[in-house]
Amino acid sequence: MHLLSVNRARPLPADYTDRPFTGIDKRPVAGPVAVAAPGPKGTGGSGVAGDTIGDLRHHGGDDQAVYAYAREDLDEWERVLGRELPAGVFGENLTTVGVDVNGARIGERWRIGADLLLEVTSPRIPCRTFAGRLEEGGWVKRFTEAAVPGAYLRVLAPGEIRAGDPVEIVHRPDHEVSVSFMFRALTTEKHLLPRLLAAGPALHPQSRAKAEEYLEKHGS
To answer: How many CA atoms lie within 13 A of 71 on its CB side?
Structure first.
């Protein structure tokens, strides 16, 4: 298990977002890149030094500091879409090899390189900017149905990383709430929402609120 690439973006104008710029167009970086907790959502951006986030209201912050996507899943999308998908094209900061990103459990911890420690927090939910970037018809629906969203992670300990660094799973929680499970609960299978609470304090605060709201309205 290792990093194929570390990806970051400079701000680019885009006509598929209501923001003046977007940071979804990420490209692999040569050499070491510092990663640290960026601060609260709304003010903190990406945890990857030099990266750009255009919409701080919906993206970035400590609980979405880093976004990871598996090269194996990109390869499958290449087959489905019939086009090349280079590392970073989904807006991911980390393109991994050999890591079951969508099977990772909420609260799972990854050691990358010598010092960086990340914790899995939530899946990526597709948005209009993502659809505009891919320029594929019905993309949000297709991406949602596939349920291979990739994972957001928070930074527990900062560090420098680079392409080729090993990824080690140092903690794997004993519950059922994987990235894919959580994605389905938040999108197509809302009845699963109460079961997200099994992930405990590692659960993204917004997702916890949705699970608790569902319980109040519908019970277990």
So the answer is: 15
